[in-house]
């Protein structure tokens, strides 16, 4: 009676064991890497109806973020500026520019410009800009170096795990309120102690419960 | 054989998927998008029901919201009932108000008028040749005409604009407008002061390299009026 398994079948157990191990590792890596919000969401850079350039306005002109996003300290929603804000300057600057045609049309017809939202939280997660900005969370911490973005892209995942990192250890991220809109802010060496003292003094208690954001 | 398989696998994954951190105009992938965009309208969203496709509708002219009657004309318009500009701002000028004014001034006004109020903001002197970007030049605050104007007039210019300057009523809340007025007054004072206006203590502070402010450690803030 011939053998059922030929001699070379001896490698099969090793092969399948090794394959299972390697495959498992590969699977874990693939899911961890490619199914993460860092991969799926970060870097979203849609084309906008008007080629607005943050690198020029915030970077080169050095305008403060709050000139345009002026309700960010008062409101949960940090507004996209209305056409009025564009026209404060562009009623006299580059009045013939074809790039600004849609702005002028919007102004003439009283129709809003349809900007594409880059940072969209699901509607079941509520976020307040005011409560973060007024407690020392800088624009840069969540939105990246906007002053270096010709076209805005999403720099951080805005996932729940990412939010909670800061809510659990805010002292690693907070900065003085006067520096909230500063781009390229460098923390002083002992910033963790400063922040811990501040958190103690002001009673900042970042919520980590469901009702804070999910109602 | 194994090597070939693994390299092939890695290569194909890299080709298909790319790396983290690359930008793309493709929509973000949410595995479960069920309640991402709920059938409700949030601020500044799109509503195709209306001709202009804005979900936010403008209030009818003449309507008054509860709590926003604006019954104090001096505070809200800078004018008395008779229509004259008020001489002094109707709220108390405190250190906090001036610091708020400085902050707001540097956000909204310094772009054209410059941080010192000389009319040399980046819009006026920026650009490749340093000749600005073609906006009508902003006047310096440190001329006699503007030193003598009333607070109500400055408030009115912020709220409603004047000639080539647009109004900032939609960007700057009422109390902040008064804070800016107070700060402009302090700026004017600071640029038109003589040695005689200072106390000997303040002169000593300046000579020792500190600010003339009472609290010299708070950088850049103007002395209160």
Account of the 3D structure:
The complex is a heterodimer of chains A (215) and B (225). With 215 residues, chain A is an all-alpha fold. Chain A folds into 2 domains: 11-40; 45-80 and 115-202, no CATH class. Chain A is 42% helix and 0% strand. In chain A, helix 5 (83-90) crosses helix 6 (101-109). Chain A is extended. The termini of chain A are far apart. The model of chain A has no long low-confidence stretch (mean pLDDT 89). Chain B is mainly α. Chain B has a domain at 73-194: Orthogonal Bundle (Cytochrome Bc1 Complex, Chain D, domain 2), CATH 1.10.760.10. Chain B has helices at residues 2-17, 73-77, 95-113, 122-125, 144-148, 151-160, 174-191, 200-207. In chain B, helix 3 (95-113) packs across helix 7 (174-191) and helix 6 (151-160) packs across helix 7. Chain B starts with a helix and ends in an 18-residue tail after the last helix. Residues 216-225 of chain B have low confidence and may be disordered. The chains are: A mainly alpha (215), B mainly alpha (225).
């Amino acid at each position: 009676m011939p053998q059922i398994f030929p001699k070379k079948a001896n490698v099969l157990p090793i092969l399948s064991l090794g394959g299972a191990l390697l495959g498992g590792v590969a699977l874990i890596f693939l899911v961890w890497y490619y199914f993460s919000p860092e991969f799926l969401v970060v870097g979203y850079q849609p084309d906008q109806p008007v080629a607005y350039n943050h690198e020029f306005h915030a970077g080169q002109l050095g305008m403060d973020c709050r000139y345009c996003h002026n309700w960010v300290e008062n409101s949960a929603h940090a507004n996209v500026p209305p056409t009025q804000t564009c026209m404060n300057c562009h009623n006299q600057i580059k009045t013939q520019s074809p790039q600004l045609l849609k702005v002028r049309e919007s102004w003439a017809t009283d129709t809003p410009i349809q900007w594409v939202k880059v940072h969209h939280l699901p509607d079941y997660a509520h976020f307040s800009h005011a409560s973060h900005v007024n407690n020392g969370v800088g624009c840069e911490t969540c939105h990246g170096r906007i002053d270096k973005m010709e076209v805005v892209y999403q720099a951080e995942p805005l996932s729940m795990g990412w939010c909670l990192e800061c809510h659990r250890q805010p002292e690693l991220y907070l900065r003085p309120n006067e520096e909230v809109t500063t781009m390229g802010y460098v923390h002083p060496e002992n910033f963790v102690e400063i922040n811990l003292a501040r958190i103690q003094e002001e009673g900042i208690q970042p919520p980590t419960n469901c009702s804070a954001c999910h109602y | 054989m194994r090597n070939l398989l693994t390299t092939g696998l890695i290569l194909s994954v890299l080709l298909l998927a790319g790396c983290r951190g690359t930008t793309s105009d493709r929509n973000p992938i949410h595995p479960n998008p069920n309640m991402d965009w709920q059938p409700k309208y949030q601020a500044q969203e799109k509503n195709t029901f209306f001709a202009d496709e804005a979900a936010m509708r403008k209030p009818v002219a003449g309507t008054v919201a509860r709590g926003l009657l604006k019954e104090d004309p001096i505070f809200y318009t800078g004018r008395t009932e008779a229509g004259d500009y008020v001489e002094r701002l109707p709220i108390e000028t405190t250190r906090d108000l001036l610091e708020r004014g400085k902050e707001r001034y540097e956000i909204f006004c310094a772009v054209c008028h410059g941080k010192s109020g000389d009319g040399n903001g980046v819009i006026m002197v920026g650009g490749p040749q340093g000749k600005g970007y073609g906006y009508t030049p902003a006047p310096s605050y440190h001329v006699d005409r503007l030193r003598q104007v009333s607070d109500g007039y400055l408030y009115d210019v912020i709220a409603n604009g004047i000639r080539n300057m647009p109004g900032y009523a939609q960007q700057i809340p009422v109390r902040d407008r008064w804070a800016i007025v107070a700060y402009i007054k302090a700026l004017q004072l600071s640029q038109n002061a003589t040695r005689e206006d200072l106390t000997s203590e303040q002169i000593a502070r300046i000579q020792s390299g500190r600010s003339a402010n009472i609290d010299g450690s708070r950088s850049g803030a103007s002395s209160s009026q």
